[in-house]
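Input/output pair, single chain:
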Amino acid sequence: MAARMNTLSLLNPSHVSLRPRDYRFSHRPLRFYTSPNPNRGALFCTCSTTNGESFVLTTPLYYVNAPPHMGSAYTTIAADAIARFQRLLGKKVIFITGTDEHGEKIAAAAMAQGSIPLDHCNLISQAYKTLWKDLDISYDKFIRTTDSKHEAIVKEFYSRVLAKGDIYQADYEGLYCVNCEEYKDEKELLENNCCPVHLKPCDSRKEENYFFALSKYQKSLEEALNKNPNFVQPSFRLNEVQSWVKGGLRDFSISRASVDWGIPIPNDRSQTIYVWFDALLGYISALSDEQEQPDLLNAVSSGWPAALHLIGKDILRFHAVYWPAMLMSAGLSLPKMVFGHGFLTKDGMKMGKSLGNTLEPNELVHRFGTDAVRYFFLREVEFGSDGDYSEERFINIVNAHLANTIGNLLNRTLGLLKKNCQSTLVVDSTTAAEGNEFKDNVEKLVDKARMHYENLSLSSACEAVLEIGNVGNFYMDERAPWSLFKQGGTASEAAAKDLVIILETARIIAIALLPVTPSLSWRIYEQLGYSRDQFDAATWGDTKWGGLKGGQVMAQPKPVFARIENQTEDVDKGVAVGKTMKSKGKKMKQAQQVAGA
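Output:
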């Protein structure tokens, strides 16, 4: 789903290209598909029945025409950070991701590889799962649109909308781009009817398809957007959506007669359900219990509506206009928020295979590690806006923030503690900080970080946590405990307390940065003498000052984040002055071979 629409040109209000004469539809009688529970009413309560406060968030279901790319990874890293923060707050999080596996483009990609569609989908879907594991993605549900439970939910949803009178049959004619999997408006095409995205001629097609009556929900959508201005975020994207709606909504096709690889229309097996009437339902089918017969009501009662749909801005129209109208038709609640983030560029240029400047997430993880990749993109890209990657900046930021500001602060403090206190804390951190305004400064920064996490300002949250590290380093340098230890007596006692204060600061950083760098946070906690179970049980409440106790024994000091050495050469001397971190683990060779599909 995410990769179907990959350029801003697809946000043109004339997404559905119909000849003027095609608007004089003659509605044909339709045969109704019987739901497994025909006695249920058309509308039903969508209140969650789960215990505790739930927080359902989703990434797009990624299109499996090719292996995952950095854009997909960025969305999912951000979603994971949000999910982890909400778990720290004690929410019952249901983090949904998955793959969109139907359509003509998938069948063509499989054929090009000498494979069948399902085998192709299995391969690419597994590539996503493998990358998510490498990136420490803590998803709760992974839905595939080829799952049998998804098909059952889609058919039941279709029947509900059909019963509402919002699906009808009509001719569909236009110029079709196979790669985009959509009909194009002639005015947006290049010479010889070439698609502006793929630069290939579009096919002229005419089909009899089924349509969803989107135009019927024009007024309802306008009212919903006006009453809930937070529905689309960032706020400037709401203006785009309102403009599309006010410009007039056109009914859109929800089936294809020429595409075999898809879910059959329940009342007409000669056609398959197309794109958004299939993939968008994955957000609900993912909630279906694995052990029960798939059922729309049961799935909805397991957490719907979603608290957050996290998507790229290129598919905003489908999530903020099409999807709400579909849900209204089916009598279901709308998601609470749709957040459209920006695009990534590399060295200031748009990425593409033709330019030879693609950014492979597997390669980044294997070269630099999970924490570095997660931190850079969440810290350096203002969430919601476009962002740029350059290797030089990547290395400089990660080294300065993670290796120096945070890692070195912990390492040198533990070294002093080992040398002067046998790695043992002399007092509780609460006692050590009595009357010290440093503690108040840290607590203010923690509150600031929480506010930014809650507002989805992930870059600002990282900045607030980094500032805790900065004030910790300043305190360390100002107090110079290494000198105080040499003086002995009360000066030495004060130095020992200072080490407790710094280590408590490192502990708080570990929790506050956990949504962004979970592995690094664990390594910090481990150095502070905590067990894995204690770390896994941590909550945001553990950012409160006072966690470390007197008598607590720290681990032996060792770097928690290795500095990345860049490959540079001193041309004059003819010798290398740096080295490059080596790849960790094997690359998914078979998946990469499909990249050109």
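The first strand starts at residue 54 and ends at 63. Residues 391-421 form the longest helix (31 residues).
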